Amino acid sequence: xxxxxxxxxxxxxxxxxxxxxxxxxxxxxxxxxxxxxxxxxxxxxxxxxxxxxxxxxxxxxxxxxxxxxxxxxxxxxxxxxxxxxxxxxxxxxxxxxxxxxxxxxxxxxxxxxxxxxxxxxxxxxxxxxxxxxxxxxxxxxxxxxxxxxxxxxxxxxxxxxxxxxxxxxxxxxxxxxxxxxxxxxxxxxxxxxxxxxxxxxxxxxxxxxxxxxxxxxxxxxxxxxxxxxxxxxxxxxxxxxxxxxxxxxxxxxxxxxxxxxxxxxxxxxxxxxxxxxxxxxxxxxxxxxxxxxxxxxxxxxxxxxxxxxxxxxxxxxxxxxxxxxxxxxxxxxxxxxxxxxxxxxxxxxxxxxxxxxxxxxxxxxxxxxxxxxxxxxxxxxxxxxxxxxxxxxxxxxxxxxxxxxxxxxxxxxxxxxxxxxxxxxxxxxxxxxxxxxxxxxxxxxxxxxxxxxxxxxxxxxxxxxxxxxxxxxxxxxxxxxxxxxxxxxxxxxxxxxxxxxxxxxxxxxxxxxxxxxxxxxxxxxxxxxxxxxxxxxxxxxxxxxxxxxx
Length: 550
Prior knowledge:
Layout: H1 35-56, E1 62-64, E2 68-78, E3 82-83, E4 86-87, E5 101-104, E6 110-117, E7 126-133, E8 148-151, E9 155-156, E10 160-161, E11 166-169, E12 181-189, E13 192-196, E14 199-203, E15 206-211, E16 219-230, E17 255-265, E18 275-282, E19 285-289, H2 297-310, E20 313-316, E21 320-324, E22 328-330, E23 333-335, E24 359-364, E25 367-371, E26 374-378, E27 382-387, E28 407-410, E29 432-435, E30 448-449, E31 455-456, E32 461-474, E33 483-493, E34 495-499, E35 511-513, E36 520-530, E37 533-542
Antiparallel strand pairs: 1-13, 2-7, 2-12, 3-4, 5-6, 5-8, 6-7, 8-11, 9-10, 12-15, 13-14, 16-17, 16-18, 18-19, 20-25, 21-24, 22-23, 24-27, 25-26, 28-33, 29-32, 30-31, 32-33, 34-37, 35-36, 36-37
């Protein structure tokens, strides 16, 4: 963004246009140099600097950081606009190099002054600073209402006042309990350099008072860019000084001055075009601050590479908290609201909505993430308004679906497994056996004897499981080839361990461990086959048992 001041007017006539692609002004012997040519020469060079700067930095980016700080303990002293019948001149009480020290004649309190605010039609003048010495009683830390105050310098209103002689009076409040000294808030910035309108502009050390008597202020604070043409008529330093002093007869060229000045605007106000936001404060808490330089094209390239390599990620994860927006009582229990107010208090939320018991507050914590390769950091929690669920709909015979895990397709179905609590049963989801063969006839399991001693036509039982759900899948219901889905869980396959001698000492549920192999398993069933031989059916086996081991 180039400068906004139009210089293609009298007397400058700077008609340089980058679209003409002219890059040099070539002076020739024997031809007079035009003022326009000298101005064009500057414009060509400035255009080159602007192009390079725009490649590296975004508009308003920090080049050389000037530290921004917020103080919620900024003391203000409200003083009377007159002293001894004379109008008070505040400017002489401000010295950035050697701050002026004020002393209360009655209290003995001393304070250094760092800022001032002139009187308005509605307020008295203020001086801002810090208390540096307690009063003569060793306890007082504020000036007394109405007391006379002296400075450690000579001052002048209409009359002259020597150093240490009273020249100010603390304001007298209508409310005697309200002190003339209040705690306010302010934003300060050190000297630095910012990329503004194609120029690398210096900012001077500044302090902006947000409020002289409140540290719960809300505002956006940043720079406004001021452009002004300076003339020798206004600034004698621009006259010819070749003789060692200003020559009023040789006024010379004009200058274009760019300055950065701190300004505060309300959070919900439209942001001016010449405003560069540095810090955002909400109810006395800093929620946003410009710390790092914002790079332009090179920043986009770094972000692209970061995203290609790592995608989106967080380095300090965000957390979320849902709570009432205002205090809400339900069944004799008070649920505290984020804004802690009762209904009807007309409190505006952080996102400019009237707080209500019909709304919820979603609080997003501080955190840091990289989105599309760009750094996103939140230094303060954010409150977001959500509507409570108040609408409803009635659905009759609706179907809901959800994922309940693995399933097996089965046919030749006879009845269905237990998938819930059964009257008379102590355990829901009754066990189902897994066998080596299909049943010959549905519902018939009464013919031969299996190795587990159970009459069955299903071969050997090789495992057990439970069913969480059972549903029709395809085919014709009732037919033997109809396919059903049986959603299984707690699937445990059996390991058969044959012992050389019958043993009644091993109980169901006991853990068995191989002395040599170290393999382990839990006894699901013990079956004495006969002739002094026992077979153990084990579940949850780890390792492999060895032949002949104990």
